[in-house]
Amino acid sequence: MPIPKPTRWHGVVHLHGLLPDALDEIDLNRLVLTSGDFGLAYLTERWAARFVSELFRYYTVYFVGYSINDPVLRYMMDALAVDEMLGENRPEAFAFGDFKHGGQSQAMLDWEAKGVTPLLYEVPSGTQDHSGLHLTLKEWVDTYRDGVRGKEMIVAQHASTPPLTSSRLDFVVGRVLWALTDGLAVKPFADLNPVPPLEWLEPLA
Hints:
Blueprint: H1 25-28, H2 35-44, H3 47-58, E1 61-63, H4 71-85, E2 93-99, H5 104-113, E3 116-122, H6 131-158, H7 171-180, H8 183-190, H9 201-204
Parallel strand pairs: 1-2, 2-3
């Protein structure tokens, strides 16, 4: 597996393998499924550990489907935090994380303590309903596909009414502020008629 540097690598990697359409003993033996497979990939042969550590050095990483206590995430982020203390820089890391009702602030702190910026969604208490993650990913795909127009639509949809809170954690505030990071979406915000309510001044400050 190549070292993932921007000048040498791009594409999709199924790091723990991909179940083949047709049963093939060679491909099946390449899957990382058991604790033994995991030990080979990350501790003994270290090919997966090497790939992941270099990925963090050169790319912005988004975790999907990981928990805060996942061994790879925990040890890798702790090691990178030591590198940062020694003066090395790395791109920011993000993770989609779930929380139960009332647990958003604690979930935020737990992820940030690992040096990861969380993108949180709520899982209703007593369920394993992760539809919030699926809907978020779909919304991201739709917005990305529409380019600047997608960001302009966010501004048009939300900026004409006062925000309920100035916190970036608020869904509407977060979306509008993200849209405005694109300079081409700032003009539609400034040109809104009537102008955006004064309550937008605080989150924009």
